[in-house]
């Protein structure tokens, strides 16, 4: 049984997924599960070329994709990583060193851009996590597989599935932040506007906690 199953939801982003796989050397302690929305020939070829990689095609929706990937994963830990992430050096040893009482957690947030805007957003995320214990999915949420399944996995939500899940994970027991930066692509911030995107995310999360249905929030999220 592998120590860690890395579950990667993919939506029309096989190039990023290929770059992610190139970072992960074959290791008996690691299993990779690709969960694309629909069939992707390039991802199928990538999976067939690596004995440590499995693939499951499912319907569109990050919650559906991550749950489908988790359902076939065999690792002790489930680590949900976005396709456009860059893994930190030493991440595997951090999983080996996690105390027995930890049920899950997340990594630190970082962006792959040298600009001051990226540093400002990273600082804002650090404060959000420190004060509210509220990481998002781009911080590489992870959980013990048995705990994840006992919690019922991710909720069937079109948006905020990470926020809803981390709340249940926190309430279920001890969680922790791994003090290593999981770097995510800044392409969406550059496309949407650095602070425009972050402000929009903040508004959506606030509305979610105010009781606005996730389907309504998903419609707002898709608007440019």
Walk me through this protein's architecture.
- This protein is 45% helix and 21% strand.
- It has 224 residues and is of the alpha/beta class.
- The protein has a single domain, classed as Spore Coat Polysaccharide Biosynthesis Protein SpsA, Chain A (Alpha-Beta Complex), CATH 3.90.550.10.
- It is globular, with a radius of gyration of 17 Å.
- The termini are far apart.
Q: How many separate structural domains?
A: 1
Structural class: alpha/beta
Which topology does CATH recognise? Spore Coat Polysaccharide Biosynthesis Protein SpsA, Chain A
Summarize the helix and strand pattern as letters. EHEHEHEEHEHEHHEHHH
> How many DSSP E strands?
8
Indicate the low-confidence ranges by residue numbers: none
State the shape: globular
- Percent strand: 15-25%
Radius of gyration: 17 Å
Largest sheet: 8 strands, mixed
Please give the alpha-carbon distance between the first and last residues.
Answer: 44 Å
Major sheet: arrangement of strands: 3-2-1-4-7-6-8-5
Classified in CATH, the superfamily is: Spore Coat Polysaccharide Biosynthesis Protein SpsA, Chain A
Provide a quick synopsis of the model.
45% of the residues lie in helices and 21% in strands.
Topology overview:
Blueprint: E1 4-10, H1 14-22, E2 30-36, H2 41-48, E3 53-55, H3 62-72, E4 77-80, E5 85-86, H4 91-96, E6 102-111, H5 116-132, E7 142-144, H6 145-150, H7 161-172, E8 174-184, H8 187-192, H9 194-209, H10 214-222
Parallel strand pairs: 1-2, 1-4, 2-3, 6-8
Antiparallel strand pairs: 4-7, 5-8, 6-7
Helix pairs in contact: 9-10
